[in-house]
Every structure is written in C-alpha cells, then in structure tokens.
Amino acid sequence: MATLSKVLVLALVFATATLRLGGQWVGAQVHHVVGGDRGWEAASDVATWSSGKIFRVGDKIWFAYSAAQGSVAELGSREEYEACDVSNPIRMYTDGLESIHLNGEGFRYFASSDPDHCKNGLRLHVEVLPFQNPETPKVATSKGSALVLAAGPTSPSGSAQLRESLVLFALGLVFLVMGN
Length: 180
What we know:
The protein has helices at residues 2-23, 46-50, 78-83, 115-119, 159-179; strands at 31-33, 55-56, 60-64, 72-75, 91-93, 97-101, 106-112, 123-129, 139-142, 145-148. By secondary structure, it is α+β, with helices and mostly antiparallel strands. Strands 2-8-7-4-5 form a 5-stranded mixed sheet. Strands 1-3-6 form a 3-stranded mixed sheet, covered by helices on one side. A two-stranded antiparallel ribbon has the order 9-10. Strand 9 (139-142) and strand 10 (145-148) form a beta hairpin.
C-alpha cells in the first residue's frame, strides 16, 4: 500500500508539472516514473518499460519503491551493471521515493541493492541524449524536397477545461494521499 501512495504522489507531481506556465512544458524536462504504475519492485518488468523511451538532458527519472524491501544503487560502469555488482555504488538511494535529475549526456546505471532482484531484472540503464528544445520545429528533407511543420491553431480550445480538470484531479490525489 505504501508503494501505491508513492505512485499517487508521483502522479500529483506529474500533474503539477504539466500545469506550469499554463500547461506548457519548460525545456526538455520529462518525468519518467520507472516501472510505470508498479514502480520499482521485483515484479516490475523494467526492461519492457524502458524500451523505446528517450531520456534527455534535463529529464528526471523517479523511483518509487518500498524502502523496507531494499534500495536503488547507482553503479559506475556497465560491467558492474551486467554483473549486478552493487558492492561499490556511486550513490545509494534509500528513501523510497527518489527523483534523479539527468543533468549530463552519457550512460547511467541503476540496480536493486539486492543482487538477486538485480539478476532477476530489477535494474535499469539509460542513455541520456543531448537536450532538444521541443519547441524547435522539425524539418525533414530529402533530395529536392522539404517538409516544414505548420504552426498550430491560435484560437482557444478545450485546454482550459483540461487544465481545470487536472487541478481538480491533483487536489483529489492530495486528499487521497493525506487520508492514508
């Protein structure tokens, strides 16, 4: 039940993040909740969750887990990661709810502090790609042609109603979490 509460708190954080600056994202920051709804636990299929995800400088990854069942180790090398060698971590995360800012390009390696859980798949490696401003229009070109994306509509839409609904949803989550 504690993990569910933490996932709900993460949902609140995510909803709040989408409301910043009138619902506009700031920079390339994307919040990735490792393991999705299940969070970081032995039954999670972290490899499937992470496949196809793009991690960029400025993003955050969140680990939600039961601190009573272990912690998350950040490892320094691919060799340590593949061997589930958690004897000399760069950092150990032990709080049960961790926000890790991806502040530089390169590879980051995370594993369960329990080697058996790690060997059973409770580990994550991410390749952090360079920052890419999401507001920069993409242009695809081929020999002799170009495709330019047109600007979106300037008239108001249902986004104001969506924003209000998200606020109500976030408040409901706060009351739900406080009630536990």
